[in-house]
Amino acid sequence: MTRHVVARVGDVPPGSRVLVTLDGREIGVFNVDGEFFAVRNRCPHQAGPLCEGILTRPVSSTRPGEYAFTEEGGILRCPWHQWEFDLATGRSWCDPDRVRVRSYPVVVERGGADVRVPGPYTAETFPVAVEDEYVVVDLGGRLPS
Ligand code: FES
What we know:
Low-confidence stretches: none
Number of strands: 12
CATH class: Mainly Beta
Bound molecules: FE2/S2 (inorganic) cluster
Order of helices and strands: EEEEEEEEEEEE
C-alpha cells in the first residue's frame, strides 16, 4: 500500500507543514493557501534537510530594480545553501530541467472506507461517524512534469 493518511486537514493550517516518515522516507507536507504539497526532506544538492527551510513565494519582475512576490505557488528554500524548489513540481528554481526534489501527489479525502491506516492486527470494528477531512500522500504516484 502506498497511500498514507498523514494528518487531519485542520492539523496543517495554511502556511504550515508537517514532517512525516513514510516507508522509511522523511517527507514534508505543506499547506500553501489550502493547497497541499509533499516533497522529500532530502535536498538534491548535498542532502540537506530541505523541508526545514523557508517557505516563500515565486518572485516576478517586469524590469530591473522592481520585483514582487506572486500570489500563487510555493517556493521552498533549503536551509543549507539556499537552493530553491517549486513545491508544485519539485523542480529547482535555477536548473529546473536537471535538478529536482522528489515530490508526491497529495489529496484531501473525507474519512471513510478508503482512508485507513493498515496495521498487523485485526480488531472488532464498529460504525464510526466521519466529520473531518484528511490529508493523504501517495508515495506511488507521480506528479505531471
Ligand atoms: S544541501 Fe540544499 S542547497 Fe545545498
